[in-house]
């Protein structure tokens, strides 16, 4: 699962995607490839709440940790609830025992922050030296409610400078795949009337296409980060490499795995 990265360049192929903007910090947007899980969880499922075999989950998460040079015991996650709470990470906790939150920030090397997604946007953050990092889970609810801004604010409290923060939106469902109803559009606009440009006419009457990654990038830029970009990789459209809630729903339901995105402070 090892990959090299050219300085400052995105790498969008293979089992791990890396962002040039985050080159100062060990990180990876992991795909579903390279694990040991079977059936609907094949193969690098990393969700502790998915119903997958616990032994397979432990091995998958260990592979992820080692791929960015971390101890498996130091790959940390929270219980994601589509909210805006941010955890300041200073020490490891047991797998599956993270607080109810949707983002983490850290300024201590040796700890890896992981967010789980299967269409929602994983967003990884780093200052220019990789000394202060963050990871956020941003579905439409969290993004509209302010989880990204809350993550930036928490990084600033740890000593980061907003204008020095680089944020990258990883693989998620993109506009052409993300058809939503008027109720969802109304819910987003009730929280953020500036979101209107990110809804365009849907493929069906009375529906809209929502551009989640572009919306996240716009929120990040409004928050004053120095650089905000999206990888532009669609989870629904790439079944070989990504799990997708929407794909599972369109297929009639059933069990599903989740990919993980991870970042850690640099050793400087």
UniProtKB/TrEMBL annotation:
InterPro entries: Cu_polyphenol_OxRdtase (IPR003730), Cu_polyphenol_OxRdtase_sf (IPR038371), Cytotoxic_necrot_fac-like_cat (IPR011324)
Reaction(s) catalysed by this chain's protein: adenosine + phosphate = alpha-D-ribose 1-phosphate + adenine; inosine + phosphate = alpha-D-ribose 1-phosphate + hypoxanthine; adenosine + H2O + H(+) = inosine + NH4(+); S-methyl-5'-thioadenosine + phosphate = 5-(methylsulfanyl)-alpha-D-ribose 1-phosphate + adenine
Keyword tags: Hydrolase, Metal-binding, Transferase, Zinc
GO molecular function: copper ion binding; hydrolase activity; S-methyl-5-thioadenosine phosphorylase activity
Family recorded in the similarity comment: Belongs to the purine nucleoside phosphorylase YfiH/LACC1 family.
NCBIfam families recorded: peptidoglycan editing factor PgeF
Protein name stated in the entry: Purine nucleoside phosphorylase
Upper lineage: Bacteria, Pseudomonadati, Pseudomonadota, Alphaproteobacteria, Acetobacterales
């Amino acid at each position: 699962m090892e990959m090299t990265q050219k300085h400052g360049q995105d790498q969008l192929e293979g089992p791990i995607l890396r962002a040039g903007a985050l080159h100062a910090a060990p990180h990876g947007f992991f795909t579903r490839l390279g694990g040991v899980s079977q059936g609907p969880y094949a193969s690098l499922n990393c969700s502790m709440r998915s119903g997958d075999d616990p032994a397979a989950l432990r091995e998958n998460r260990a592979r992820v940790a080692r791929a960015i040079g971390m101890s498996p015991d130091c790959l940390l996650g929270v219980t994601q609830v589509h909210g805006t709470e941010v955890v300041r990470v200073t020490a490891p906790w047991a797998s599956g025992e993270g607080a109810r939150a949707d983002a983490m920030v850290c300024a201590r090397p040796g700890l890896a922050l992981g967010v789980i997604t299967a269409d929602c946007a994983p967003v990884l953050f780093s200052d220019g030296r990789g000394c202060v990092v963050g990871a956020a889970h941003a579905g439409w609810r969290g993004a509209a409610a302010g989880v990204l801004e809350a993550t930036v604010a928490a990084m600033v409290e740890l000593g980061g400078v907003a204008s020095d923060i680089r944020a990258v939106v990883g693989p998620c469902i993109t506009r052409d795949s993300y058809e939503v109803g008027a109720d969802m559009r109304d819910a987003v606009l009730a929280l953020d009337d500036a979101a209107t440009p990110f809804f365009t006419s849907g493929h069906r009457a009375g529906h809209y296409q929502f551009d989640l990654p572009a919306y996240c990038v716009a929120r990040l830029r409004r928050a004053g980060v120095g650089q905000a970009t999206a990888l532009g990789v669609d989870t629904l459209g790439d079944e070989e490499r990504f799990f997708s809630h929407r794909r599972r729903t369109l297929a009639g339901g059933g069990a599903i795995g989740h990919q993980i995105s991870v970042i850690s402070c640099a050793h400087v």
